[in-house]
Amino acid sequence: MVCQAATPAVQQAAAPRLLDEQSGPEVLQQLDTIIFDCDGVLWRGSDTITNAVEALHVMRQQGKRLLFVTNNSSKSRAQYVKKFQSLGMQVDSSEIVSSSYTAAAYLSSIGFGQCLQPGKHVLLLGSQGTADELAAAGLQVLDAEQLQLPVLDSVDAMLQMQLDERIGAVVLGWDCLFNYQKLVYASACLRELPGCLCVATNLDHADYIGNDRMMPGTGALVAALQVASGVEPVNVGKGGAWLFPYLLAKFQLQPSRTAVVGDRLDTDIAMGKQGGLVTLLPLTGVTTMQGALSAASSEQPDFIMPSVAALAGLPSS
């Protein structure tokens, strides 16, 4: 299915409009579906954003459809349900689109293991959550940890390294155990195994974790693999070309009545711009007010608000 981007619901002004708890409900009234990022929007780490739980409750009471689309691939949808519950948010797995899930959805959509690369396995550099989603889609998974790769500290060791010819795709997600051995092996698979595909769960360069500290994101790992292999991965997360048409078809979105709420210009806001959605940036995550206002006008959100609470008419502190 080829999906055409819709005309933006909000014409981009010279600068984004600032929302507060008085003006937020006016925008909410015009929406049927709200797509939320999670980290930096609803929570930071194990702490909820002030009045985020209450804001979701208000929106559900008004009959809004809520979707939760995250580039974080560390958890499966089932694990995310538990995360939401632990923070007092009642969310069904059908409302969650994690990049662990979209990696599996993408490979299934192209017939991987069936008509494309029949019988082949996925080499996963990532979390158990991503492994669970791949397996749930009926894909055969080889976790890089299971390969028990030797120390590859010499040319001889690398030349003696044997590749598993069952591998037909490499999926790279958040992997806190990513190392040189994995980089050597995965890049060799992409260079040497015929037709081997490369899929990235996202290209986020870094993530805000509080106290003015950023941690390297999956995009940093993807960059290393791309340089080493010479293969550009398919990005199945926000910021990539594949995700929005998939969401549009799966959820039958009406762009003029749909909004994206996210804290990153290069993923959340970019996806909204791609699809002609209303874009809202809360100042509780990666992007600061200065960062948003200094960005190119084509990259700026339609609205900036102190937090997601403002959209529901609630105080942000």
From TrEMBL:
Catalytic residues, chain numbering: 37 (nucleophile), 39 (proton donor)
Stored SUPFAM superfamilies: HAD-like (SSF56784)
Entry's Gene Ontology cellular component terms: cytoplasm
Keywords on record: Hydrolase, Magnesium, Metal-binding
Domain of life assignment: Eukaryota
EC number of this enzyme: 3.1.3.18
Catalysed reactions, semicolon-separated: 2-phosphoglycolate + H2O = glycolate + phosphate
Pfam family, one: Hydrolase_like
Required cofactor(s): Mg(2+)
Claim: Disulfide bond is one of the keywords in the record: no
GO MF annotation terms: metal ion binding; phosphoglycolate phosphatase activity
Amino acids binding substrate: 238
Binding site for Mg(2+): 37, 39, 263
CC cofactor note: Divalent metal ions. Mg(2+) is the most effective.
Keyword set includes DNA damage: no
Family, similarity comment: Belongs to the HAD-like hydrolase superfamily.
Protein's UniProt name: Phosphoglycolate phosphatase
Organism: Tetradesmus obliquus
